[in-house]
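Incident log, structure service

09:12 report received: a user says their structure output differs between two submissions of the same chain.
09:20 pulled the input from the user's history:
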Amino acid sequence: MSQRIWMNGRLVPADQAAVSVFDHGLLYGDGVFEGIRIYNGRIFKLRTHLLRLFASAKVIRLPIPYSLEALDAAVRETVAANEKLNGYVRLCVTRGSGTLGLNPFKCSDPTAFIIADSISLYPRELYETGMAVITAATMRNHPLALSPRVKSMNYLNNIMAKIEALDAGANEAVMLNHQGYVAECTGDNLFVVHHAAKGSSLATPPLHAGVLEGVTRGVVMDLAREMGMPVTCPDMTRHDLYVADEIFLTGTAAEVIAVTRVDNRPIGTGKPGAATARLTQAFRSFVENDAPED
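09:34 re-ran on a clean worker, output below:
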């Protein structure tokens, strides 16, 4: 079966899905997007993702020419047309075609497209052994320049840090904000686990540190609380990472994956920890058995 792309209201073959070279999404990264998982035929947290898409578009004054309900139906139509029981959806809305200048108000109607496909962000073996990360020299964009809560199509800041990781032989990089505090990784949110006599606790950087308000991040925080693990959002430095008992990353594409080395320093035992394993199992059970679409 040939892949079908939803493009501005209709499904077309993948080789016919095209965006104008004058589209501001291509010329300037002027647009917003969402990545959404499909589990057992259910589209995970679809409404949550769509609400974030519309919020991001509102912030950058990008009028989406479809209602939330219309895009909900379009995502389902695309998933069904591509017969995806498990996979990944990429939903993008660009500013549309315009001039070679920056003025967004000279653009024509926004372009919307939906891809339903498969994704594998990291090698499967790393989910068993854990992964090594580095701290990038590339600073996370200042949160007052463009809020990281806007999931925009301009990811060059993240890409530059990703290049640093790949050059160092790592799969991911931790990005610090303008104050030197931990923000997030190039494509994932970050969590630190601390062990104590009364049990484990979880910490993740606060939104004001320059963090995308990740959907998977929120699910894992809820699951941790249900398991009796306190969750806090303190400012953290690299020191806090180096002395952590466990570290793991979350994201729609990454799901949950342990970090076992940071800047060539072993984290905890140097192997994925028990708390990470419990949360990973809880997450897998949640998405496989429930996979809520709200």
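09:41 both user submissions now match this output. Likely a transient worker issue. Closing.
09:42 reviewer note: The mean pLDDT is 95. Residues 192 and 292 are 26 Å apart (CA to CA).
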